[in-house]
Amino acid sequence: MLPRMNKAAAITATLLGASPAIGATLDSASAGLAAPDITIGFDEVALSTGDTVTNQFTAFGVTFTPGVTYFENVSARPNFSGAAAIEFLNTAFSIKFSDAVTDMSVAMTANFGSATFTTFLNGSQVESFSSALDLSSNNFYGFTNSLFDEVVVNPAGSTTVALDNLSFNVAPIPVPASLPLLAAGLGGLVYIRARKTKKGCSAT
């Protein structure tokens, strides 16, 4: 993982109009993010099997559109731990983050098929990749060292896609480019005032 300072620099460049930073992908990985800021196991909110999951996890920084279905126990799948979300209709869905993130991983399985994962930042596509889905233990997918606020998952060939243990790192807030200049200006004013005060004391 890149140092936070490098990520902050990438975010600052993006805010100043440069292209969004493109990092690496997690494609059929054996593990998700190490020590993420937030992990959602879908048991943080009291839901019932069959409920549509949309904005119930807003407090944790994520929403789902048009929605996936909550299941209380899908622990039989690799890297799943109890509750999970399932997409039954073989249609695309979005994982939207309240704030921009730099890294994201999710455990995802299907009996067969594939999915395309695409990130967006403020509605503009950042990067994309496609991968086969199955029931193996190498089932973590995601993006690292990038900057995005939405992931669109578009499954194909399978009518049941399950996801669990969604982890992500929230992007650090970059220091505005004008802040060091402002601090320098204020420091100069304080110095000038201090000199004037000292001169006034010397004259008396």
Summarize it.
The protein is α+β, with helices and mostly antiparallel strands. It is built from 2 helices and 12 strands. The protein folds into 2 domains: 4-173, Jelly Rolls (Sandwich); 178-204.
Descriptive report:
It is a single chain. This protein has helices spanning 4-15, 178-203; strands at residues 24-29, 38-40, 52-53, 62-65, 68-71, 84-87, 93-110, 114-121, 124-132, 140-144, 148-156, 161-170. It folds into two domains: 4-173, Sandwich (Jelly Rolls), CATH 2.60.120; 178-204. The longest helix has 26 residues, at 178-203. Helix content is 19%, strand content 40%. The N and C termini lie far apart (62 Å). With 204 residues, the protein is of the alpha+beta class. It is built from two helices and twelve strands, in the order αββββββββββββα. Strands 1, 2, 3, 4, 5, 6, 7, 8, 9, 10, 11 and 12 form a twelve-stranded antiparallel sheet that branches.
Major sheet characteristics: 12 strands, antiparallel
| Large-scale geometry | globular
- SSE order: HEEEEEEEEEEEEH
What's the CATH topology name of the largest domain?
Jelly Rolls
Query: In CATH terms, what is the architecture of the largest domain?
Result: Sandwich
Transmembrane segments: 173-192
Keywords: Membrane, Signal, Transmembrane, Transmembrane helix
Signal peptide: 1-23
InterPro entries: VPLPA-CTERM
Blueprint (SSEs and pairs):
Blueprint: H1 4-15, E1 24-29, E2 38-40, E3 52-53, E4 62-65, E5 68-71, E6 84-87, E7 93-110, E8 114-121, E9 124-132, E10 140-144, E11 148-156, E12 161-170, H2 178-203
Antiparallel strand pairs: 1-10, 2-12, 3-5, 4-7, 5-6, 6-12, 7-10, 7-11, 7-12, 8-9, 8-11
